[in-house]
Amino acid sequence: MSASEPTGREDADETPVDLLGVGAGPFNLSLAALADGVPGLTTAFLEQRPGVRWHPGLLIEGATLQVPFLADLVSLVDPTSRWSFLNYVRSTGRLFPFYFAERFHIDRVEYEAYLRWAGEGLAACRFGRRVEQVSWDAGRGAFAVDFSGARTGGGRMYARSLALGVGTAPHVPEPLRAPAGDPGVPVLHSADYLEHRERLLAARHVTVVGSGQSGAEVLLDLLRARPAGEEGLAWVARTEAFAPMEYSKIGLEQFTPDYTAYFRALPEGERDALLPAQWQLYKGVSGETLGEIHDELYRRTLGGGWPDVVLTPGVAVEGARRRDGRLELALHHRRQGTRAALATDAVVLATGYRERPLETLLGPLEKYLGRDGAGRALVDGEQRLVLDPAVGGSVFVQNAERHSHGVGTPDLGLAAWRSAVIVNAVARERTGHDAYDLPSRTAFTTFGLPGPRPERGSGPGQDSGGSGGSR
User: Fold this and answer.
1) How many CB atoms lie within 10 A of CB 287?
2) Exposure string (b/e) for 231-241, b if CB count within 10 Å is 16 or more?
C-alpha cells in the first residue's frame, strides 16, 4: 500500500507543515517536486481524486503537447532533479528509444504517464482527500485545513502557508447550457470527448464549436474515423479565422518571466485591454494540426467532389433548440450581419475553461481578500493572494492569476519557474535564504522602456514583484 493511500480516520495533525497544497495537477505537482528535499521544508499536497489524471477526455491518439518536453515539472529550474521527464524515461528503461525518436513534443498520453509517475513517487502527495474548508487559526499561527475522504472519515491539518492549485473547469456558453443538460441529443464539452467518442461517431452529423487546439484535434479525429463522402461535420467558431498559434522564437518570449513582470507592472485597465488581443498566443491551433486537417480534406477530393465538411469562422452560436429529434443551432455571422440555422445530431464544445472561484474553498478567509477594481483577487509578484494583515500566513495561487500575470498563467512552460518562486518565498521565511537561484533575465526582448513611470497608487498589489512572477 502506498504512503499516500487513505487507510482510516485521520484526526487533526497538530504540527503545522510549512506548505500545504490543495490539488495535485501539473502545477502543484511541480511545486511538490521542487520542494522535495529542500532542507528544513515540510510539505503536504491533498488531491480529491484517487490518483493523477490530466485531461483524460483529450488524450486522443497521436495528440501532442504544445510545449517541448523540457516544460516538465522541474527542468527549466533544476534539470538535475530526479523528477525530470528525462529521468522518468530513464527509470522506465526507454532513454535510448526516446533519444532515437527525436520527439521534442511528446504525446499527451506519455505526459500524463509522467505526471502519474511523479505523483506516485512524491511522498508529500496524498490522494483521495478533498479539502472542504480553510480557516486561519490565530492561536497556532497557521491555517486549519479540513478535508474529507471517500475511504476515510477525513481530518484536519495545519499549515503555515497554502498553495491553491485547484485547476480550471470546462466552460459551457450560456446559449448551450440548457441543451447540454438534456440527454436526448449529445451536447458535451471537449473535456469529455473520448468518453463519448463512439456515440459521436455513430451520429449522422456532428458540430464542433470553438477554434482552439482542442476543437481542431476533435475535428481531425472525427474526420479520420468517418467514411469519405459521409463525413457530416461542421466546425464553427467566433474567431475571424482558424488561425495558427504564435510559435515564432521571439514571439514565444511573451511566455517568459520577463514578460510576466512587464505585464504585472501595467495599469489594470491596460492589462484588461491587452489580454483579449493576445488570443492567438494561447487560443490558436498548431500549424501542424491545421496542416493535417487540410491534408485529410484534400485526400478526400481525389475521387472527385468535396468532403461533407463545413468550416466556418466568424460565427457565434446565439441559441439552440430541439427540433424533430435534432438540435438546431442559431448562428450569427457578425461581419456579414447574417443569420442561419444549422441542424445537427451532436455538438462538441471546445469552448475552453474558466478559473474556479477561490471564494468557495477559502470560506471564512474570503472577507480578507484584497480586490482589484473589477473585484478580482489581487496577487503579488510571488504568487501570494493579498490578504488583510489579520491573516498571518500566505496563500499562494497557481493558474488563478491571468488577469494580473498575463497569458502565460495556464501555460506549462512556466510551471517550474512559478513553483520555484513559491518555494523560495516559503524557504526564505523558514530558513532565511532561497532554495533556487533564478536567472535575472530570461528573454532577448526588452518589454517596455526603462524611463520613469508615472505616479501610481500604492494600494495592495502595487508591489515591485519580489523575485519575479510566473505564467
Assistant:
1) 12
2) bbbbbbbbbee
Neighbours of 91 (CB within 10 A): 12
Q: Which residues are paired to 339 by β-bridges? A: 332
In whole angstroms, how far apart are CA 62 and each of 58, 106, 109, 136, 192?
11, 9, 9, 46, 17
Report residues of the chain scoring pLDDT below 50: 1-8, 456-471
| Integer Cα distance of 238 and 349 in angstroms | 13
| Burial class of residue 218 (count of CB atoms within 10 Å of its CB; 0-12, 13-18, 19+) | buried
Question: What are the residues facing 333 on neighbouring strands?
Answer: 315, 338
Residue 396 bridge partners (DSSP): 163, 384
User: Quick one: CA dihedral 8, 12, 18, 20, positive or negative?
Assistant: positive
DSSP state of 295: H
Q: Three-state DSSP class for 457?
A: coil
Nine cell digits for residue 206:
456532428
Measured between alpha carbons, how far is 167 from 55 in angstroms, rounded to an integer? Answer: 11
25, 158 contact by CB (below 8 A): no
**What CA–CA distance (Å, rounded) separates 402 from 406?**
5
User: Using CA atoms, how far apart are residues 259 and 271, in angstroms rounded to an integer?
Assistant: 12
Q: Match 484588461 to its residue by C-alpha cell.
A: 272
- Kindly report, residue by residue over 369-427, the tens digit of the pLDDT: 999 999 999 999 999 999 999 999 999 999 999 999 999 999 999 999 999 999 999 99
Residue (of 147, 135, 155) closest to 395 by Cα position:
135
* Contact residues for 108 (Cβ-Cβ < 8 A; gap 6+): 54, 55, 58, 59, 60, 63, 64, 65
3-state secondary structure of 16: coil
Which helix (H) or strand (E) is 287 found in, with range?
A: helix 287-299
